[in-house]
From TrEMBL:
Protein name: DUF456 domain-containing protein
Domain of life of the source: Archaea
Keyword set includes Transmembrane: yes
Pfam families: DUF456
Native source organism of the sequence: Haloarcula marismortui ATCC 33800
Amino acid sequence: MNLLGLEALLFVLAFALLIGGVIGSLTPQVPGALVSLAGVYLYWVASGMTDPGTLLLALLTLVGLLTWAVDIAGGAVAARVGGASNWTAALAGVVALVLFFVTGPLGILLGVAGTVFVVEFYRQEDARGSAKAALVTTAGMLASGVVQALLTASILVTMIAVALL
């Protein structure tokens, strides 16, 4: 494979990563933001470290890191907003990680909601408050996925513009 062929392959792989980042952001426990950033940096290396420019590369990196922070903190913040304790939020995160390997996205949502409900009911003996915490946590996890998808999609669209211009 000549150098031109390798460069084209790297560009194709970069866009595969960028698209994978958007898809990954919709899947719980998949670091879509980091996959998107890998695509940005692969494209940058393939372009001879000229495209995107330094300022745009820094901005895309910040968007990617913000998206990653939303991914990491989204469920825990939602649990806290819903009235769950820090302990409950941490335990729900562990349950989500385990269920990722066993059940997939739906199992993660149901498992986290169930965990939040059971632990909060045990702590407070308040079914209504426990249900609220579980519902808000689940809604927050879904909203976090939407925000991540929008942010990783913005990275993809920006990189399409870089490639076309």
